[in-house]
Write a structure and sequence with these properties.
The protein is mainly α. It has two domains: 209 residues, Growth Hormone, Chain: A (Up-down Bundle); 218 residues, Up-down Bundle (Growth Hormone, Chain: A), CATH 1.20.1250.20. The protein is 76% helix and 2% strand. The protein contains 20 helices and two strands. It has a two-stranded antiparallel sheet with strand order 1-2. The chain is globular, with a radius of gyration of 22 Å. 45% of the residues are buried.
Length: 438
């Protein structure tokens, strides 16, 4: 019996992983929603100006760490320590750096250096967040039993999604209402990050991790059809995900009259605070739906079969999007929004269970494997936004956009059907059928 088999996976481990993923979502949301507001306030205080080019330049540098997760995965797979194992040293050290960065940020910034400090510290913070995310992915794959993998991955992803989608808008409303300051948010986030980093030491990790033969193991992820089918599945599964979240909130606000649409142009009224409040509420509704769907989808993937979870996730996504074509009041649209969030959460949990199980085929470099799959997922999201822009430019209609999204939500079934079920199911289909009969 190996040491990995001796490690008992405790329910508390899922909660420790979850709070760390939850914090990742909060970091992403703060950087994308709160920090831009903060920059504008500091720039105005200094009597200077900022251009869209400056914003694009800052964002491009800050997000670099997420584009190089592949290299983080290689480090997290290849190097470790005898005392802490392979994953915990990277999670602990990188999050401590990120947490300290958040805490000292308010004391470094002045109106004169805000752009430089935000760029440097944002890059540093995201390095810690992206690196720890990569190591956490591998940690779960390493120690989580395959029969629990769908539920664990679905739950942690659901919590991260809640904060990524809703965390920033909710904090923005609190700032506008004068309930909290931006500097207080930065310091609090730093304290939380340090606490969550230390919590990872509670999770047991095997010390005798596999030896990585970098060239051989890395090549093994690209020289077989199974993994390429998986990468295409990862790409096609997320083509519509980010698009529907982005445009759904906008569509609801238009239907509520909070945002005005004239032709193909959208404009805001004078009630800026009202927009913040409605945006926060709509995104929170989507996030709640995602969380519930992620939990249930993970249960289905583990208790029944991953194939059934994938099929039902695609069916739920397609049908819930098509509901938006029905003329409805904005209250009914909010109900449809919950259903769409639920479908997206279910869909991702099923996907995560499949890809997570396939990552176990590469125990030496499972973090790297997941980073590669995530790269294809991110490319799929970018491709979806590009195609959406083209569709909307041609038709200028939300109805056509929703029809398009409903259609492409089914494309992921093509590469998925090409993958051998024995490679991703945690139990054979015959066993599942006998279990259902009993």
């Amino acid at each position: 019996m190996t040491e990995q088999e001796k490690i008992e996976y405790k329910s508390s481990y899922t909660w420790i992983f979850s709070i760390n993923y939850f914090n990742q979502g909060l970091v992403t949301s703060i950087l994308s929603v709160i920090v831009p507001i903060y920059i504008l306030l500091m720039i105005a205080e200094g009597g200077t100006a900022i251009t869209p080019t400056d914003v694009a330049y800052i964002a491009s540098i800050i997000t670099i760490p997420w584009a190089v997760k592949l290299f983080f995965g290689i480090f997290a797979d290849k190097y470790g320590t005898k005392s802490l194992g392979r994953r915990r040293p990277w999670i602990l050290s990188t999050l401590l750096v990120s947490g300290v960065g958040w805490m000292i940020l308010p004391f470094l910034i002045t109106p004169g250096n805000v752009l430089f400090i935000i760029t440097v510290m944002g890059f540093l913070i995201n390095c810690g967040t992206a690196f720890s995310d990569t190591a956490l992915d591998g940690f779960i794959i390493d120690i989580c039993p395959k029969e629990k993998l769908g539920r664990v991955l679905g739950f942690v992803w659901g919590l991260r999604s809640i904060e990524t989608i809703a965390g920033g808008p909710v904090l923005a409303v609190l700032i506008v209402l004068g309930q909290i300051s931006v500097n207080a948010i930065f310091i609090a986030e730093g304290i939380l990050t340090v606490f969550f980093a230390i919590s990872i030491l509670v999770v047991n990790e095997k010390k005798d991790f596999p030896k990585v033969k970098l060239k051989e193991n890395f090549k093994g992820m690209f020289n077989n059809s199974r993994d390429w089918k998986t990468y295409m599945f990862a790409l096609s599964n997320n083509v519509m995900g980010n698009v529907i979240v982005l445009f759904l909130a906008m569509f609801i606000l238009i239907e509520m009259g909070v945002i005005q649409m004239k032709g193909r142009n959208i404009t805001l009224g004078e009630k800026t605070l009202e927009v913040y409040l409605f945006q926060a509420n709509v995104t929170l509704i989507i996030a709640i739906g995602i969380m519930v769907g992620a939990i249930i989808g993970g249960i289905i993937a583990d208790k029944k079969t991953r194939k059934f979870a994938i099929y039902s996730g695609v069916l739920l996504t397609t049908s819930s999007i098509l509901l938006l074509l029905i003329p409805a009041t904005w209250t009914l649209l909010l109900f449809f929004t919950v259903l769409i969030g639920f479908a997206l959460g279910w869909r991702h949990s099923a996907y995560a269970a499949v890809v997570g199980q396939l990552a176990k085929k590469h125990p030496e470099m499972d973090s790297t494997y997941l980073s590669i799959a995530n790269s294809f997922t991110n490319f799929g999201a970018t491709l979806g936004l590009l195609l959406t822009g083209i569709i909307f430019q041609i038709f200028g209609s939300y109805a056509m956009l929703f029809v398009f999204l409903a259609i492409i939500s089914n494309v992921s079934l093509i590469p998925f059907l090409a993958i051998d079920a024995e490679d991703y199911e945690h139990k054979s289909e015959k066993t599942a059928i006998l279990t259902d009969i009993k």
